[in-house]
Amino acid sequence: MIRRRIKAARLVSGAPAKPDGSLRLQCGQVVSLEPAEGSSTMNSYQCGSWEAEWHAEDGGRLSALRYAHQDLLTAPPATFHSPAGDYGQYETRPVYGYDDCFPTVDPCDFPTQGWPVPDHGELCWLPWEVTPARDQLAFHVKSELLPVIFTRRMSFQRSSLNWLFEVINTGNMNVPFLHVMHCLMPLREVAEVRVPEFSRVVDEAHDKGLPLTTPRHVEDLLLSQGTNKAWMLLLQGVKSGSVGIAFKSGLKLEVRFPLELFPTLGIWWNNGKYPDEEGCRRVECAFEPIPGPYSSLAKSFQEGAYLLAPARASVRWTITWNIT
Q1: What's the CATH number where 18 sits?
Q2: What is the pLDDT of residue 267?
Q3: Could you tell me where the beta strands, DSSP code E, fall in 24-159?
């Protein structure tokens, strides 16, 4: 692994530029950009057709993930200000790219203990450590609220990406949790969606079921929506652990997840509606395997559906992205 540090406005020798002025990186090479005042260090990495950028200090956030120059994540906003209304703590920071929601998505009280869990979980508010290798990036963070060490390991293959997750419980009590990959994708570039069969669809924002009974009903609902629309759908009781996204560029992404651990597929489809204030509305979508029936750990715990890190032990799982 080669690591270099550069100033934001100039290139280091040995890291040649492409014709468009961006860096040409060797496989496994990491280049760091010195942060502007008030921002965090941005790191760039390349492995084959994959390119990744991240900010370790900003919750281990991935600010970019590309395959063959196709952006798979939304980009940072050109400017940012928090909404005037109360849209939750998560909206007080720029929302884009990828981060991990743990141990909940929706803010709630932690089961059996009662202390409040932050909006979109704790980890996106903490600084992380990152260990790059030739074909892998390993992100690590230690919880400040739970006796837990969380690892996100990204293993890059020629046309696939394995996301390997691990929760190590260093305490003497079992830790219930949800984990959701909060992967915001560029909705305007999505041409087609393929969702699995399911038992029920819930409109989570309004806490009500929807009369959608087939994958085609869900796909048509999403792709027929105009601007100024937003949905948070929960496809509960999915029958297979797979969802497909086709981009207008022709690239197709299949997300495969372990069905025995993730019985629900969450779909966030925000076409210029949320947050509903001038200068704050975004265009984005996300496809999120969820361990419980809801985005709230407290509600999922009540239903008896969640993940568990046993005392003095660990739990691991893998989610795979396949590109065609």
Answers
A1: 2.70.98.10
A2: 98
A3: 30-33, 42-47, 50-55, 61-67, 70-71, 98-101, 108-109, 116-117, 129-133, 136-142, 148-156
